[in-house]
């Protein structure tokens, strides 16, 4: 549970936006940023984002729903949202837990994700949903 990143306190209701400001989200973060991580799946490797998660009800689109686009690949379970104007990935409905959104920490207002320090890496290449039971 991270309540401050650099000089920025993480608010219980914290705004996030894409680069151009067309997409604005409000995230409900009562415990701050919980379990930030990177992933090494083919998409995450390329976008390089640090993510954390909230329940689906934890993200509210305040502005720009009309410019958000969705990208799906492989199993088409996860839904990755990005601004169609500036191209910034803002959030995604998770494959490993479709009841949650992962969100791009770099989109949080006032947050520089490089101030987090060491960030754990998840093995997205060998996704848990791909393992035989």
Q: In order across it, which strands form the biggest sheet?
A: 6-11-10-9-8
CATH architecture: Beta Complex
What's the alpha carbon Rg, rounded to whole Å?
A: 14 Å
Major sheet summary line: 5 strands, antiparallel
Low-confidence stretches: none
Strand segment count: 12
Count of folded domains: 1
**How much helicity do the residues have?**
under 10%
CATH class designation:
Mainly Beta
CATH topology call:
Metal Binding Protein, Guanine Nucleotide Exchange Factor, Chain A
Please report the number of helical segments: 1
SSE ordering: EEEEEHEEEEEEE
Q: Specify the overall morphology.
A: globular
Distance between the ends: 32 Å
Strand content: 35-45%
Task: Report the structural category.
Answer: mainly beta
What would the average pLDDT be, to the nearest integer?
93
Task: Show the helix and strand layout.
Elements (H helix, E strand, L loop, with lengths): L3 E2 L2 E2 L3 E5 L6 E5 L9 E2 L2 H6 L3 E5 L3 E5 L4 E4 L7 E5 L5 E5 L6 E5 L16 E2 L11
Parallel strand pairs: 5-12
Antiparallel strand pairs: 1-2, 3-4, 4-7, 6-11, 8-9, 9-10, 10-11
Explain what this protein looks like in three dimensions.
It is a single chain. The chain is mainly beta and 133 residues long. The chain has a single domain (4-130), classed as Metal Binding Protein, Guanine Nucleotide Exchange Factor, Chain A. Helix content is 5%, strand content 35%. The protein has one helix and twelve strands. Strands 6-11-10-9-8 form a five-stranded antiparallel sheet, with no helix packed on it. Strands 3-4-7 form a three-stranded antiparallel sheet, with no helix packed on it. Strands 1-2 form a two-stranded antiparallel ribbon. Strand 9 and strand 10 (89-93) form a beta hairpin. The chain is globular and about 40 Å long. The N and C termini lie far apart (32 Å). The mean pLDDT is 93. Residues 14-130 form the CENP-V/GFA domain. This is Glutathione-dependent formaldehyde-activating, GFA. One of its GO terms (molecular function) is metal ion binding. InterPro entries: CENP-V-like (IPR052355), CENP-V/GFA (IPR006913), Mss4-like_sf (IPR011057). Belongs to the Gfa family.
